[in-house]
Design a protein that fits this description.
128 residues; mainly alpha; 6 helices; globular
């Protein structure tokens, strides 16, 4: 199995379920997000949980091609950079999270984008 397909099969359904949860259980996810931005310990843990797999993807799948596998690479770089940002600047995570939660449309758009990305990766991972 190609690494691109394996990673799409792993990341796609995860994002799809997360995005659906964000839309279906909007109030619960907003409450979790508020608890998250109120806890520097959770921001730190989330930083580690983004940094490690992001780095793993970048190290094993740094593929820059004109095709769907580049989505996996970009996802890895975003996860790596998000992890670094959370580890180095937790106060900014709190500030940005507060701004995001103040705008309900941003949260809904984030859920819709997560569903879309999850659906694309799931399609290429399982059906293409």
């Amino acid at each position: 199995m190609q690494p691109s397909i394996f990673l799409a099969q792993l990341i796609g359904p995860t994002l799809l379920v997360m995005g659906i949860g964000m839309i279906v259980n909007r109030a619960a996810y907003r409450a979790m997000a508020q608890e998250f931005i109120d806890s520097r310990a959770l921001i730190f843990i989330a930083g580690l949980l983004a940094f490690v797999p992001g780095l793993a993807i970048v190290l094993t799948h740094n593929v820059w091609v004109a095709g769907w596998p580049v989505i996996v690479t970009v996802f890895g770089w975003i996860a790596l950079l998000a992890g670094i940002f959370r580890l180095l600047f937790p106060q900014e995570v709190t500030r940005l999270g507060t701004r995001m939660l103040a705008n309900p449309a941003a949260f809904t758009a984030g859920g819709a984008g997560t569903i879309l990305l999850g659906a694309i990766l799931s399609f290429y991972g399982y059906f293409a």
